[in-house]
Structure formats: structure tokens, C-alpha cells
Amino acid sequence: MRLVRHLADLPHSELARGSVLTIGAFDGIHLGHRQLLRRVVDVAIQSKRPAIVMSFEPMPKEFFLGDSAPARLMRFREKHEALAERRIELFFCPRFDAQMREISAATFVRQILVHGLNARHVVVGDDFRFARRREGSLADLLRVSEALDLTVEQVPSILVGDTRVSSTAIREALARGDMARATAFLGRPYRMSGRIVRGREVGRQLGYPTANVDLRRRQSPVMGIYAVRVHGLPEGPVDGVASVGTRPTFDLTKPLLEVHLFDFSREIYGEYIHVDFIEHLRDEEKFASIDDLVAQMKTDEQNARSALASGAA
What we know:
- This protein is α/β, with parallel strands linked by helices.
- The chain is built from 10 helices and 16 strands.
- The chain has helices at 31-47, 60-65, 76-85, 98-101, 105-116, 138-145, 167-176, 179-186, 202-205, 290-309; strands spanning 2-4, 19-23, 51-54, 90-92, 119-125, 129-130, 136-137, 151-155, 159-160, 163-164, 190-197, 211-213, 224-231, 238-245, 256-261, 272-282.
- The strands form 4 sheets. The protein has a 6-stranded parallel β-sheet, with helices on both faces. It has a 6-stranded antiparallel β-barrel with strand order 11-12-15-14-13-16. Strands 6-7 form a two-stranded antiparallel sheet.
- Helix 7 packs antiparallel against helix 8 (179-186).
């Protein structure tokens, strides 16, 4: 999959026959997103045109709200990897800035969708809005579609029970520690990925060495202690217990993902891993003594092993 960040860098020769695309934040790649992406790829194959996803970086809410924006479900790299796995051929992700904020719906359609991406078929969700102050809608696309030789298709939302699947609903489930509900919306366990970095080795000193992963996020959608399953190591999936937070017993301030891998001793600094969050065990807390902390860590390990053995994954 090719990543393009600027309109001027689009491969116009490859888009000469037109393209099939969808537009959105695609944070989390949940069941609703998957449905959109499948439809894009299916139409692209049938029409022998490239399948394209358009998104923005930073996400618009991050531009407007800064540190008050909702926590990302995915880092940019994670989103890129997930889209590539779904046979998207081009990921067009321009920077969202003050200039992009002021683009009108008409300009967005003509300059970006038609002249830039040579869109011939656009697939959108039923909550689709675009351009300045979210003024553009499905109705606007349909109104100009015939004149621009463009077809527009709306894909309905997916419901789990009576709840519409959305990134917001997933964040709410994660905030409650309801990993089963988040998994149902995502179609898989919630996952964080990253490279293992060296830490202060506090866990090793306490008898619980951890693989530390820098979150590289403004804020984390999960906090607390979890039973996890780690993928990406040559040994295959490895069970463990993870902490996401600031380690209040040690008065640290920068959130970190720390994973203690069960029955594992190899050094893995620098390796890139995927951590699946299977069950929330408890919230972070500050302990009166190191002995109290170690006793709780032993309990956490036992609870995590039980959760993973019970088939919670």
C-alpha cells in the first residue's frame, strides 16, 4: 500500500482510469469500518481501479481540541498497517491544518476527490460529513455526482445488539473496562502495538520483569491492569499481565505500557509487538509499601492466568 501525504504527490498515471475510495477517520478499524473497506475493495476489483482510503493526520478533532481530543484507538502506524492488511492500495492522508479546515464542500469534491484522486465511485457511511464546519453531506455528493461522472454509495451502520458500532462506543467500553463489549465492536480484542524500549527495570527488581512499550499517544484509551496476549514474537503468542498508566506507587507522570510475559526469559529489547487486551483486572492504585505492591502483582498474575485459561480471549 502506498502512503501519500500531499495532493501534489498523488500518482496521477495510476489514477488515470479513476479510483474507488472512502473517506473517514478509521480510528480502530471496527466492524463498521471493515464493512466500508470490503465494499471499496470489491468495487475496485470489479472495476479494475485502485482502492483508496482518505483520512487526515492529525485527526480533525485533535486539531481543534488538542490534548482534550478523544483518546486515539490507534496510532498512525497501527492504522497504516491495518489498512494495508485489507488490500487498500493507496492511503491518502494529507495534513489537517488551518488551510484544510477552510476548504468548502464544493472545493473539496472538485479539487480533491475529482481532480486529485479521480474518484469514480465513493463509498461512505450513514454518518458521513466533510469539509468546512462539516457542511458537506451525502446529499451534497449526490447532487453533483452526475455532472462529475461520480457514483456514490452509502453503507449502513452495523449494530451489535441495539448499539451502533462506532469508535466512540468502543472508547466508552474501554473506559469502563468492558473488554468483551469492545471486542464485539472491533471483531477482535483491543490491541496496542509498539517497539519494546528500555525502562528503569523496576519490575525486574521486584521479580516481575516487563517489556516496556512507549504509547506515543496524547492519552491512552485504556488504563489499569489487564490480562493480555502478546503477538509478534518468534515464539508465537505469549500470555501475560499488563499495566497501562503512570505507576502511582513510584510517582511517575508519563503513561507507559508494561507487559510481564509469563514463563518467558529472553531479552527482547527493540522488537515490535502487538498487545491484545483480553480482560480488565483492576484499576491502577497507589500502595503503601513495595511489599503490598508485590503481593498485589502476584494476585494479578494469578487472575490473569485464570482469565486467559478460561477462554476469555
